[in-house]
Amino acid sequence: MDLPITGERLTVLSPGPSVLVLGAGGYEIHIEGELVLHRTVGPTLHHIAGEPPAADLAAALDGVIVSAAADSGGTLRMLLDSGSHLAVEPDRYYEAWHVTTPGVYLVVCMPGGELAIWSEKS
Q1: What is the mean pLDDT of each run of 10 residues along the chain (122 residues)?
Q2: Residues 23, 87: contact at Cβ < 8 Å?
């Protein structure tokens, strides 16, 4: 399933200890699972909820989203214009991520990877 954030600039809004909050235009992406960022230059970065983020995570996540999708197993994947790509896999016990615009759109990766989707059109 394609997510409606392609073409938006991805930025870190809050590198909180339990939830990493990213911005993409009017959307927010809340990541509570492990984020893996494969970069074209530099080592792969990992961010695990509850751990302090890597010092260069915010800079590495800054870029325009070339593609963004959630697969049928619940993995969130995004490609940035820098060539870096990130992935957040589902978690067995909790919601690993969600994408939202308050009151309009919500996609949640439920425990186990099932996607729950709400939008003003549904």
Answers
A1: 96 84 95 94 88 85 96 97 96 96 90 92 53
A2: no
